[in-house]
Q: What sequence folds into this?
């Protein structure tokens, strides 16, 4: 059905007022812009119904409806049901709470596996469980591929393994992991899987049911929404968590309450409904009159988005690969898998911050850092150069943006 249809990038861009300026955003992996539908909802909530929701008077009911719509949109983005997600302040915060909620399940000597590629969000909180006598093992990046390889996970799994925490796609390396296959192996070992989808969700369609993950996390502010975090849990997995809220808050099956002490940010949750409206507007534009359910509409749009981004990423990857002084992380001859449009690179003998500064002077929004994936940066040896330069595209980036990036890099390298 989508065979001859390609993404109308200009139509997409028209929804983001910031993109009208004379600069290019290439730090989308840090955070994306929000379309006007999200801004409108934020405005509407704050202007008309910013009261305590769910208390039975008109403004309160309107607030509850907008919050429910936001939750539904956030769940739909990963094909979850609204009662299977917890909306919290951030992914970092959601993992922190989840690690406390699962701690009572763990006995001294039980084992958890984390990686040295992950952002610290799906890392540090789990490692801290060592204080309870939990054995923490590290699934290390393969030195040749800069990536996580299943064969390196195998020897770490045993009958004491309770949980494996890893990333769908690293915010530095950008390679897409075969989550379904990895989860299958983890389940065969009798353990649960907790997957960080933050760097993946803006680029491809996610179906948590199909992946069969126990826990999956993403951050709406990296996928055209407000600054929040979403935790998905399979119902059986959520049922194992201990209440982290006040003792009198009922914890029977209301995980939004039991796993988000203090509650979610109401206005931002309400605003998240605008992400679904935005994707629907894109769908109506590309597939006018198609009478499809929301999952199919999202499937269609992400197919177009993936094709567009892959073309942009191909150009950036080819350009960087043509420069002998540049080392792209995860794109050596040994690179084995598909990547998203996130490129972290090092330039021989140069400080990464200097390169990023020059890119910014040329009107390219880019940055150099460890991007909180500190263990990954150390593993690839990028610390002496002050981390990596990172450029990342999403669907609203155009071919012209890539031209600008290439021209700027030609002058800098
Ligand atoms: C891959 C990845 N995981 C987790 C996070 C943390 O997300 P949050 O800022 O919502 O805590 C980030 C943020 O940059 C990220 O890139």
A:
């Amino acid at each position: 059905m989508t065979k001859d249809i390609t993404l109308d990038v200009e139509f997409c861009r028209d929804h983001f007022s910031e993109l009208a300026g004379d600069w290019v955003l290439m730090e989308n992996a840090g955070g994306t812009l929000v379309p006007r539908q999200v801004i409108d909802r934020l405005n509407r909530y704050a202007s008309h119904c910013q009261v305590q929701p769910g208390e039975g008077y008109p403004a309160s009911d309107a607030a509850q409806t907008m919050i429910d719509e936001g939750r539904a949109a956030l769940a739909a983005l990963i094909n979850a049901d609204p009662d299977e997600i917890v909306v919290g302040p951030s992914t970092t915060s959601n993992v922190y709470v989840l690690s406390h909620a699962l701690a009572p399940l763990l006995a001294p000597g039980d084992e958890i596996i984390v990686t040295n590629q992950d952002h610290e969000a799906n890392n540090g909180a789990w490692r801290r469980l060592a204080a309870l006598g939990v054995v923490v093992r590290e699934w290390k990046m393969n030195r040749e591929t800069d990536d996580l390889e299943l064969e390196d996970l195998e020897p770490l799994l045993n009958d004491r393994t309770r949980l494996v925490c890893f990333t769908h796609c690293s915010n530095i390396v950008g390679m897409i992991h075969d989550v379904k296959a990895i989860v299958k192996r983890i389940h065969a070992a009798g353990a649960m899987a907790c997957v960080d989808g933050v760097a993946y969700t803006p680029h491809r369609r996610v179906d948590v049911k199909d992946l069969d993950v126990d826990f999956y996390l993403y951050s709406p502010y990296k996928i055209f929404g407000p600054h929040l975090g979403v935790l998905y849990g399979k119902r059986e997995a959520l049922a194992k968590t201990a209440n982290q809220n006040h003792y009198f808050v009922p914890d029977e099956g209301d995980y939004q309450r039991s796993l988000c002490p203090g509650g979610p940010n109401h206005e931002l949750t309400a605003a998240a409904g605008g992400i679904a409206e935005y994707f629907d507007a894109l769908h109506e534009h590309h597939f006018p009159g198609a009478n499809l359910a929301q999952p199919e509409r999202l499937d269609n749009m992400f197919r177009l988005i993936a094709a567009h981004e892959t073309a942009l990423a191909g150009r950036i990857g080819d350009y960087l690969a043509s420069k002998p002084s540049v080392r792209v992380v995860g794109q050596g001859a040994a690179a084995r898998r598909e990547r998203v449009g996130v490129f972290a690179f090092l330039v021989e003998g140069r400080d990464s911050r200097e390169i990023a500064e020059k890119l910014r002077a040329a009107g390219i929004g880019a940055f150099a850092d460890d991007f909180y994936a500190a263990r990954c940066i150390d593993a690839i040896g990028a610390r002496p150069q002050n981390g990596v330069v990172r450029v990342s595209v999403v669907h609203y980036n155009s071919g012209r943006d890539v031209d600008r990036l290439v021209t700027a890099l030609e002058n800098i390298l």
